[in-house]
Write a structure and sequence with these properties.
By secondary structure, the chain is mainly alpha-helical. 54% of the residues lie in helices and 0% in strands. The chain contains five helices and no strands. The two termini are 29 Å apart.
Length: 81
């Protein structure tokens, strides 16, 4: 369920109606609590890595100065955006 919800391509991503019909939601008693836990964690890590890579590609070769901790300094802010 999580993997299909995190699909980047909107045409391949699960819809809200489809998500509500998924066995995790519709029949939670049939799904073991840790059945897909590790797979879900791995999918979330991959998604986060892709998101970070995409953000770095926007900044180009000068990406080192745009680390989250540095962004606050550049913007004159004490918190991370």
């Amino acid at each position: 369920l999580i993997n299909s919800m995190l699909t980047m391509n909107p045409s391949k991503r699960i819809t809200a109606a489809e998500a509500l019909k998924h066995q995790w939601i519709f029949q939670p008693e049939r799904v073991a609590s840790s059945m897909h836990r590790q797979e879900t964690v791995e999918c979330l890590k991959k998604f986060n890595a892709k998101r970070k890579l995409k953000a770095l590609s926007v900044f180009g070769p000068d990406h080192q100065k745009w680390r989250p901790a540095e962004m606050g300094k550049e913007l004159g802010s004490s918190h991370i955006v």
